[in-house]
Amino acid sequence: MRGTVQALGHTAWITLLFYICQNLVLRWTERAGLGPDPSILVWCLPSVLLILATVLLTRRLRAQGWKESLAYLGFKAVTGQRLGLGFVLSVPVLVGYGEGYVAYVHKGFSMSLFPQWPFLLAWFLVGTFFEELVFRGFLFQNLRERWAFGPAALVSSFAWALAHFGNAFLGAHVRFLFPDILVFLLGLTGAYVFERSGNSILPWMMAHLAINLVGLVNIGNAGLFLTPLGAPIGYLFGGEILCLLIAVPVTRRLTADLMDRKGKAER
After folding, report:
1. Distant-in-sequence, close-in-space partners of 206: CB < 8 Å, separation ≥ 6
2. pTM recorded for the entire structure
3. Calpha distance 237→104 (Å, rounded)
């Protein structure tokens, strides 16, 4: 019980510190007048610093070296199997974006990427890596050592969904993007993919990044958050739902040999 409370407590302060630092950085760059591109790169700093803090914390708690701590958090070998799984899970999301593009253009809306999309991509990449490291690599792993898969996945996914309330703290107009129920379900799926892929953060991080890439989309020069709702936006998020539907059977199929080897090693 003590280890569980400790893991939840560490996750809570890491998440809270992230949002505090991110809020401070956003305010500072706004006042500094750095311009959009350098500002977005500065926005990456809280994620980078807290990724390092999570690795250092894991190293201290587990009394392990750097290599062992990184492996525990999900830094496993990049294999064709893991890359392929991540790609397959990302495809429905990306197809949904394509369908959304066609639907919005057909209705007369302009739809494009924001001009600073390469810098936003870097920000989303670092942020996605941070979330996967904290909620799958650190929290889920710690809970899984003590609990069965179900409770560990439920609690870590609920914590991840709860953490998304921090978007309001950062001033985002999240009236439709990433509803908490969808985030919770994605968390359950992410925990399953993580465990089935040999505790690697790579496959689900790829799918998670594909989902976050919706933030690069600018519809009607108003951004995604302020765009008119309706059928077209359903395509953007329908891809995420399809990803959820196929995740378990696809992951089971593509990782069957990996689980067989794991079972033989345990015997």
Report:
1. 83, 86, 87, 89, 90
2. 0.90
3. 14
